[in-house]
Write a structure and sequence with these properties.
164 residues, mainly alpha, Helicase, Ruva Protein, domain 3, 6 helices, rod-shaped
């Protein structure tokens, strides 16, 4: 009888302590919501070593450090905007995979379009010059009958003359 009471009391104490254990904070790596948030933030930041990858995709040591900083900031209770502001204050707008459009980033946004338009203009110019050159070249090639017969002699070769 005494054993059953002790076992019952032990069971009550264990079940009563269960909510206390559930209240413990779950590390970011274990919390799927925080882990997904860290991945979303990492996909918004450029790897400063690779430059063509997000820090979520990169295996560079700096990208690992930046992912660690994101996890630390999330654990500290910072919002996504606060974390992104911290990263841009520390590393500049270039760390953002989609930097904002402003005076310092205008070349990043408009540079490819300007280069493409410049390339198209250069191509059109070259094609026009080439076409104009072909017309002029065709006009210069027009031979007189005497020049044509002389060319035929030279190309056909005259008997008795040695060709060089």
């Amino acid at each position: 009888m005494m054993r059953s009471r002790v076992a019952l009391l032990a069971a009550i104490v264990l079940f009563a302590a269960t909510p206390v254990l559930a209240a413990d904070a779950v590390p970011t790596e274990m919390d799927p919501v925080k882990a997904a948030r860290a991945v979303r933030l990492a996909e918004k930041l450029r790897c400063l070593v690779c430059q063509n990858q997000t820090i979520a995709d990169s295996n560079a040591e700096l990208a690992n450090d930046l992912r660690g900083q994101i996890r630390e900031q999330i654990a500290a209770g910072k919002s996504d905007d606060e974390i992104l502001t911290y990263m841009t204050n520390r590393y500049g707008d270039f760390v953002l995979y989609q930097p904002p459009f402003k005076a310092t980033t205008v070349l990043l946004w408009l540079g490819p379009a300007v280069l493409m338009l410049g390339g198209i203009a250069l191509l059109v110019r070259i094609l026009r010059r080439r076409r104009a050159g072909e017309v002029a070249l065709n006009d210069e090639i027009a031979l007189t009958d005497e020049e044509k017969s002389r060319a035929a002699q030279l190309l056909g070769g005259e008997p008795g003359k040695k060709q060089s």
